[in-house]
Amino acid sequence: MIDTYLRYRNADLDQILVLLNSAIENLVSRNVVKHNKDSVESTGKISRMQCARCLYISYVSENEPEACFRCHDSELHIFPKKKE
After folding, report:
1. 31: CB partners within 8 A, 6+ apart
2. CATH topology of domain 44-84
3. In terms of CB atoms within 10 Å, which end of the chain has fewer, N or C?
4. Distance CA 23, CA 2 (A)
């Protein structure tokens, strides 16, 4: 990640690992991913949804309740793909 993204080139590796581990723990607790010793795998399909109320775009797993991550409203719509 440090080699790929210039934003992290001067970052402390330990700080990045702390942030990454907390994000993975959060996703595991919500049953979005499975964490094995050396890998992280999705537990189901992930959909790109847009909130009808605040228009925030969320990526929601089929294993978690459909709710906006910003305002917690339950009315989400599939976010349209770009027209080509």
Report:
1. 43, 61, 63, 64
2. Rubrerythrin, domain 2 (2.20.28)
3. C
4. 17
Instruction: Report the share of the chain in percent with pLDDT over 70.
Output: 92
In one letter, which amino acid is 60?
A: V
Helix (H/G/I), strand (E/B), else coil: 73? coil
Rounded to an integer, what distance in angstroms lies between the CA atom of residue 84 and that of residue 79? 15
Question: What are the residue ranges spanned by the domains of the chain?
Answer: 1-43, 44-84
Interatomic CA distance for residues 48 and 50, integer angstroms: 7
What is the per-residue pLDDT across 20-61, written as a single tens digit (0 to 9) for each? 899 999 999 988 999 888 899 999 999 999 999 999 999 999
Residue with tokens 């210039």: 6
